[in-house]
Design brief:
The protein has about 250 residues and is α/β, with parallel strands linked by helices. Helices cover about 35% and strands about 20% of the residues. The strands form 2 sheets. It has a 6-stranded parallel β-sheet with strand order 3-2-1-7-8-9, with helices on both faces. The structure holds 2'-O-acetyl adenosine-5-diphosphoribose.
């Protein structure tokens, strides 16, 4: 990350009426939450299609719950890091004109204090009943190997969007609007390979003249880099606080 790029990104932000942020697993890496795409193509030792797809659920729901219970346990032990807190500070400055769209299901943005937040891939803390369809926040307490709905006795599944499933409209529609209407889009800690989440980047670029400025914050270049106007390469827990500091008061 060059000092010049940091200053340019801060200048664009200062002029921005609306700001949108898209985050991925990288923003939580410094908190101790593992990212998804390890070099061996496995996700914590499992093939993604076994633990994060409707087919995997049909084949072995116990394995799916074992996997998500372990992730719930991990998230119970971690805390937001300076990257999450820097995004709260941006929201404090822009208020309703700031939208944070996250692919993360760990809840750390909410724990940090972000409120104008769209969790487009769902939440580890919520369950959805396959009987009565009720969605409930169950915190991070252990749920056991095959949890059942306390209301109707139906089987519960994690309220998480799996591969092959559509994103819930109540979060996806406002996410599209926020990306299309923003002046600066910050793309933080995502490999930008999972769609439709990654399509928010071209959506921001497609907007009325002038197109939004896209600022990527990541350890490395990604699929998003092609559309980024600037890349600030480094850990988001370091880069984002620096960006806020450069913005000044
Ligand atoms: P990935 O694991 O694909 O990508 C994580 C990104 O974070 C990579 O580009 C890393 O370079 C970057 N990264 C790692 N540590 C970082 C740090 N300290 N600071 C900044 N960047 C860092 O995760 P996502 O892009 O979030 O979907 O994956 C998208 C979706 O794929 C997830 O939401 C999940 C998964 O399947 C569902 O669960 C539905």
């Amino acid at each position: 990350m060059t000092d010049h790029d940091l200053t340019r990104a801060a200048d664009w932000l200062r002029l921005a009426d609306r700001v949108c942020v898209l985050t991925g697993a990288g923003v939580s890496a410094e908190s101790g939450v593992p990212t998804f795409r390890a070099a061996d193509g496995l996700w914590e030792g499992h093939a993604i299609e076994d633990v994060a797809s409707p087919g995997g659920w049909d084949r072995d729901p116990d394995l799916v719950w074992q996997f998500y219970n372990a992730r719930r346990e991990n998230v119970g032990t971690v805390r937001p890091n300076p990257g999450h807190h820097a995004l709260v500070e941006l929201e404090r400055r822009w208020g309703d004109r700031f939208t944070l769209v996250t692919q993360n299901v760990d809840g750390l943005h909410r724990d940090a204090g972000s409120r104008n937040l769209l969790e487009i891939h769902g939440s580890l803390r919520r369950t959805r009943c396959l009987g009565c369809r009720a969605v409930a926040d169950r915190g991070l307490d252990p749920l056991g190997p095959a949890p059942r709905c306390p209301d109707c006795g139906g089987r519960l599944r994690p309220d998480i969007v799996w591969f092959g499933e559509a994103l819930p409209e109540d979060v996806w529609e406002p996410a599209l609007e926020a990306a299309y209407g923003c002046d600066v889009l910050l793309v933080v800690g995502t490999s930008a390979v999972v769609h439709p989440a990654a399509s928010l980047i071209p959506v921001a670029k497609r907007r009325r003249h002038p197109a939004a400025k896209v600022v990527e914050v990541n350890l490395t270049e990604t699929e998003a880099s092609r559309l980024a106007d600037i890349g600030l390469y480094g850990p988001s827990g370091v880069v984002l606080p620096k960006l806020v500091e450069r913005l000044g008061s």
